[in-house]
Amino acid sequence: xxxxxxxxxxxxxxxxxxxxxxxxxxxxxxxxxxxxxxxxxxxxxxxxxxxxxxxxxxxxxxxxxxxxxxxxxxxxxxxxxxxxxxxxxxxxxxxxxxxxxxxxxxxxxxxxxxxxxxxxxxxxxxxxxxxxxxxxxxxxxxxxxxxxxxxxxxxxxxxxxxxxxxxxxxxxxxxxxxxxxxxxxxxxxxxxxxxxxxxxxxxxxxxxxxxxxxxxxxxxxxxxxxxxxxxxxxxxxxxxxxxxxxxxxxxxxxxxxxxxxxxxxxxxxxxxxxxxxxxxxxxxxxxxxxxxxxxxxxxxxxxxxxxxxxxxxxxxxxxxxxxxxxxxxxxxxxxxxxxxxxxxxxxxxxxxxxxxxxxxxxxxxxxxxxxxxxxxxxxxxxxxxxxxxxxxxxxxxxxxxxxxxxxxx
Length: 409
Ligand code: PMP
Hints:
This is cysteine desulfurase. By secondary structure, this protein is α/β, with parallel strands linked by helices. It is 40% helix and 15% strand. It contains 14 helices and 17 strands. The structure holds 4'-deoxy-4'-aminopyridoxal-5'-phosphate. Residues 96-98, 126, 128-129, 174, 178, 203, 205-206, 226, 367 line the site of 4'-deoxy-4'-aminopyridoxal-5'-phosphate (PMP).
């Protein structure tokens, strides 16, 4: 199982938390869609920053300010390379994917979306990619429209084509569903939107840790993700925006750092990305994110994708064979997530039984209520895998679910 170049046991030793025990059992972390663990390289990089480089950036001409600025801007370069952006000026640091989407809604959305305009999202979206657009639509008198999915949880491109029209200003769509694991055809979605002159925001929160992403190949106008879901720290995330597009946008928050010159009569703003980074940013965690992306690139995203596909196929086949298990989300193209419900059990009961064995899964609605309701459920059990998981861990999960299924029959 796995790729010849991929030694999972060596990889696991890079993650100190994987040696934890929970309820006397080895921890099996299947909650990667909620957040991922940090390799020692990231933990060390954060400690090194605070021990040797800590300073505010840009403002002071002294040695530590120079070190901190180099580390922060170095991280921006790493993110730009990781996403295949044209340059670091296309990368804005924010708190996470949620803040990233709100930033785009309150800059691009405020400027370009008006009464009678239309915003398209998919039925798969996380609440973070629904609510900001709903709020903007209500404020502007715009209309929110929804791309339906088929019974496997895949986007229906023909229905999407029918929604597109000259009033469409923005399409906001996820690359990987956090609740179902569906990998959506984002390149097609972008191309179709551009034909009617609409811009596209791609929510990459669940994609970047599982597959190679190239924003220029996708031709995405905006691409967002969270550091903590890609083996980096919490509190740091990214907005990618095409340079020419960012240059036309108004600032977001006002304050220090984002200005070129201030008088009481007027303010001249900096060019992007600084225009969108008011105040002191999350310097250390940006640097930590850079270390996480370096780590991931050393592993190789193609190796990761290959190994994880084998894990997901293994888990899916074994879950499907258990009487009473219903898989939610059966699209051909999936990443990481195996959502299911078990007849006769609340999802929390399954989660508790797994936790008893040291196995961490999320249960509930996963901040994606519309797509679960599309399948007639309010909650699922959601194991979500990363490259440091193993088939032995999956066997432990399957044994618990099988035991529960047997006890109810
Ligand atoms: N979009 C998707 C697809 C997600 O899975 C998540 C996190 N569950 C978010 C957006 C929001 O990310 P954050 O909570 O890190 O801002």
